[in-house]
Specification:
Chain lengths: 217, 217
DNA sequence: GATTACAGTGAACGACTGTACACTGAATAG
DNA sequence: CTATTCAGTGTACAGTCGTTCACTGTAATC
């Protein structure tokens, strides 16, 4: 659980001199980590400044040395999580080999990233639809994600003739299918992963099957 | 805004004698309506018992005459909202005419129901991924919804040979596309509706285009 | 070596939270 | 007509909340 803090506190043991900047940055990260921990089973709006501060091992008033408000902490969290998201996008960009190869590679990438950064993805999927100010900035980020995907898709031979509008429609459809998969993975009990990724691949295959027969009207 | 209460309070004007049961049921409904109002821009977990009670025109302690806790109020809200959802499902069940007719009719039904019950759909989409105990019961309800859709789909000629597993995969895909559309409608600025429903129809068309060429794996 | 900058401290505040308890008054039951 | 039921009242209490303010001790600067 929230033991990240205690580990961090051990830095006194290692003999390397820690600059003030480094110390500050570590506390800041401890705040972010604590918040992410607490977010495992609650929406962001229910976090209190005091409990985040306590979890990070500082007194409530010291919180303000790092963020002007909880909302600002939330924005930083969105940035951290979307960095992971962009990393995933970068990993998934692969040479258009076969349809099937591309599908299973993409699903595998999503699977791997979700499992390696569960808290980031949980945060993003939770707060995306949660209302509040974070939802808006996450929506912007997801739109960029979808836009990038549309650009990638445009390079595929069967899609070269598609209008940008249709490409965005397709990209949105793929993204929302992937979000569904992400949520399923986050809610899965152990051992259900292969079933979920299998269904995810089927969904993508079905979508891509329609592409050759598409007429925009 | 939250004037539902005041309207309700006018019942004293109408001369019909109101039984005690009726009065109680009205207050209960006022609590639900107030909560739904407050949920317009905040997650459920941030609602306080006191403000819901105040909005319904009763003192905080009287809240307990109707619900044992806010969570129980939330469960009642899920029931109310899913009643709307089932109503939509019933309306959308139409004779399998043409593909295109079925698609535009379904999208039109979703559009109409979302606009007529924005607060219910906002509540469902927000809390579905919001964590907490409500998310689970909403997930159960959505799975039933998806299951019903799978059964309906099985009646279509091109889908008669499909395995139940594949039918569920297809139903889930359609449901998540529809949820995306719902969220888009709820976030839309006035005038964007036709663009959104247009895209929604395209998404469904693309999905259905793949069906004739499907081979299970 | 003296001075400054600043991350973290600790007490105090007013506002708000859920809930316990004893109550009132009117619709209902006998 | 009397007794009971029960939705709603009002007070009170112990917690938690965000934020204020004056402070301390040490790393960084001159």
């Amino acid at each position: 659980m929230s033991n990240a803090v205690d580990i961090r506190r051990l830095e006194a043991v290692s003999e390397e001199p820690v600059s003030r900047q480094e110390r500050k940055q570590r506390t800041r990260q401890a705040l972010l980590d604590t918040a992410l921990d607490l977010l495992a089973d609650r929406p962001f709006a229910t976090l209190s400044l005091r409990e985040v501060a306590k979890g990070a091992g500082i007194v409530p008033t010291a919180f303000y040395r790092h963020f002007a408000s909880m909302e600002e902490l939330g924005v930083a969290l969105v940035e951290e999580a979307t960095r992971t998201l962009r990393g995933m996008m970068r990993s998934a960009r692969t040479d258009p080999d076969t349809y099937q190869g591309m599908i299973s590679a993409s699903v595998a990438t999503v699977h791997q990233f979700v499992r390696a950064h569960e808290d980031h993805f949980r945060f993003l999927t939770r707060e995306r639809y949660g209302g509040g100010p974070l939802a808006r900035s996450i929506a912007v980020e997801l739109r960029m994600f979808s836009g990038d995907l549309a650009i990638d898709l445009a390079r595929f031979a069967p899609l070269r003739a598609w209008s940008t509008e249709d490409l965005h429609m397709l990209a949105d459809l793929i993204v929302s299918a992937m979000i569904t998969t992400t949520v399923e993975l986050l809610e899965a009990r152990p051992g259900e992963d292969t079933k979920i990724t299998g269904t995810a691949e089927k969904r993508l295959r079905l979508i891509l099957l329609g592409i050759p027969h598409w007429k925009s009207a």
